[in-house]
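**Archive record**
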Amino acid sequence: MKNTTPIGVSEFLPNNAAWLAKNKQLLQDFFAKENFLTIKTPTIEFSESLEPGMGDHLKKQAIEFFDPQGKRLMLRPDNTTPIARTVASRMQEYSLPLRLSYIEPVFRKSDLEKHTDSEIFQAGCEIIGYSSIDAVCQIIKTAVESLKVCGINNIGIDIGHVDFVSKLSGVKKHALLEGDYVTFGEIPARGKKEVCAGNKDLEAVFDAMKRDELEDFVFINQGLVKGIYYYTGIIFEIYCKDLNKIVASGGQYDQLCSKFGYDQPAVGFAINLNEIIGESNE
């Protein structure tokens, strides 16, 4: 019988394994320079411990099994939810804002039709307990600089807000997720500051991107929608034009920590390292 790996997981041959090891170290050093403290949550969690912060979409993607006592366990399906749980349960005495970083894999069921990864290596940062929209700007800029550390420079940034899509039906939200504008009924507005539609937070972020000389790379996208339910305000995606892929995403999740008993606003991003392994513009 031919040796195979399960659907959704990959073997990293020496060149890609070396790339991953090198860039994990580069990112860890960069995060430390930017004053983000490293945090590591368990790979395996009790399902009931994470479920308060998980929406239906993430629950369906989670890989679950049982321990010898019959308790439901899951492989960590994202990094943000267990970090929020850890902060709420063990870090309430820490000074705010908390600046945390991680470089850890997450595990999700593979989509057999789309051949999506089950083991996804992520690197990201969170700011928990922030006090102004400046933290959102910092997170987006940090995400951009993190990609540069990995040699990814030819990027575009789409920024949206959950208010643009919060009143849409489930069918229309799904159509946006799939890029199915026929079902959605129109192509959502996408442009510069005029597309902010009076949203003061979006305008402030756009102005900050302009000050950081990122305006040419930034578009406000009224049709941007995320499958993970916990986002509450500004959301964003960063894509690599050379690869034609989304390589990082994030946003505000101001109510997630409260699901675990610690009411603090938060914002963060995650880079999908699987999408850029072995790539470099240098």
About this structure: Residues 40 and 199 are 35 Å apart (CA to CA). The longest strand covers residues 98-107. The two ends are 42 Å apart (CA to CA). The mean pLDDT is 93.
